[in-house]
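$ ./design --mode recover --in tokens.txt
reading tokens...
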């Protein structure tokens, strides 16, 4: 029996902190944690619009965010959608994210979605490095468990409220 409510009772609980809902994720693989940031309403399903919002929240421009969200949804959505998911299968289901892994992946996650910290860089360097161009250890670790996305969004929100 496939039940998302059971999934969330097991994996998610939310804590209100200063008016911002922060997902506290237990028993998830690193890969699930990595993508959970983009699940903006914490329902276990990442829509294209949620993915777009997530990329904008971490500092990507709208054009990049739209293109990336569309391509990821088209490529990953069908692989992670359960048989009973509504068509078109463009939403990414966190529970099944491991099914989207393929041979040309960076190897940052193993077949079960656990992290292999010695792999993966790119966009995160641009977004998470400091003013001197250094990417700190906690940011690197945060790439794998998704915590760096929450940190980047908080920094951007703080910066906008200071202006």
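writing sequence...
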């Amino acid at each position: 029996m496939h039940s998302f409510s059971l999934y969330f009772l097991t994996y998610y609980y939310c804590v209100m902190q200063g008016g911002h809902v922060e997902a506290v994720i237990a028993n998830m693989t690193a890969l699930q944690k990595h993508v959970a940031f983009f699940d903006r309403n914490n329902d276990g399903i990442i829509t294209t619009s949620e993915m777009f919002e997530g990329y904008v929240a971490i500092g990507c421009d709208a054009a990049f965010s739209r293109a990336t969200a569309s391509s990821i949804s088209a490529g990953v959505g069908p692989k992670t959608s359960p048989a009973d998911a509504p068509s078109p299968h463009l939403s990414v289901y966190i529970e099944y994210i491991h099914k989207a892994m393929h041979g040309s992946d960076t190897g940052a996650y193993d077949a079960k979605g656990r992290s292999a910290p010695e792999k993966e860089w790119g966009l995160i360097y641009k977004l998470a490095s400091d003013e001197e161009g250094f990417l700190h250890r906690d940011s690197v670790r945060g790439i794998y468990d998704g915590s760096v996305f929450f940190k980047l969004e908080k920094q951007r929100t703080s910066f906008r409220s200071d202006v």
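exit 0
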